Amino acid sequence: MLLIICVDRDDDVGRKAGIGTPVVGRDAVEDAARRFGVADPEDSDLNALFQAIRLYDETDEEAEIALVTGSRDTHRNGDRAVAAQVDEVLEDMDASSAIVVTDGAEDEGIIPIVESRLRIDGVSRTVVKQSENLENAYHVLKRLLDDPDTRGTVLIPIGIVLLIFPINVVMNLFDLPNAALGITAGLLGSYFLMKGLGMDEDIERLTDAARDGIYSGKVSLITYLVAAGLVVIGAASGLREVQEFTAQSEAVIEGAVPVGMAFVQGAVAWFTTGGMVSSVGRIVDEYIQRDDFPRTYLNGPFYVMSMGLALHAVSGFMLGRFDEVYLAVGVVISVGIGMASTAVFGGIGGGSVRDSDEVAEVE
Fold this sequence. Notes:
It is a single chain. The chain has about 375 residues and is an alpha/beta fold. It folds into 3 domains: about 1-125; about 135-200; about 215-360, no CATH class. It contains 15 helices and 5 strands. A 5-stranded mixed sheet has the order 2-3-1-4-5, with helices on both faces. Helix 5 links the parallel strand 4 (about 95-100) and strand 5 (about 120-125). The radius of gyration is 30 Å and the shape is elongated. The termini are far apart. The relative contact order is 0.06. This is DUF373 family protein.
């Protein structure tokens, strides 16, 4: 059996017309197309639906037609939704091959998903014909500006390039005539690198998590910001320590290692404080949100403190600022803090704080 499958990767059909998917069968798909056409007659997915119906009507072999959709959240979630719906469609039929119908190159990204499940005999990309006049060009540009996906992909680089002139004017006021090109190139490079590595979805998830954290009152959001500030201060302190070290070296050994130790010596206190602050915020959030808060979470700040003390002692010794006694005492205290924390709060598989409280109440 041939399966003619129409794909709407960003679920315009579901969002705009409230149509549940997958939709299987010619009559059902045609009804979905009509409802979608009433909801948004300008959407290109509508043409793909009718193209799938036309292919179904023209085929001479036994065939079935289906509509599957993804999700607008991210391509990853959309592809997972498409895969789940394709599996659901294939459960009820014995299809041996498929023709995939899309409205453009973006939806064709799901072809490997379909191809991993059955043979693909062809791909039909439906392109809407546009008359070449000013009015249609205006409407196409308007739709381009209204589409969030295309808007972010196309307009951001154009906007960055157009910023060259105003940036150049501002930089000239500060006697930095060549800075505009460098800043613009840096922004463009960062944008393309982010898109190439798929970091835009990760940044979007972080933004959503930060927004949810603000509205849900998560303490960790504040402590993470404080920790980030402390890390920045620590990095600056470490670089300043490196500058002072290179100007007047007193290291036990020469080379790149003492330079790294100088950075650690200057930054470790700030880094340790930042790690402890973020760890405390995470502990507070977990304690509020979980009924079975594990005691092992309480090890976090003490382990961070232990590592910070060890790095402080070792780096100072490598720079010739501490003697062997200081190093030994620092390492012993560091190990002692870690062992004491593990003994009090437990290691892997330790119980929960609330469980301990309940046991105490029973006793």
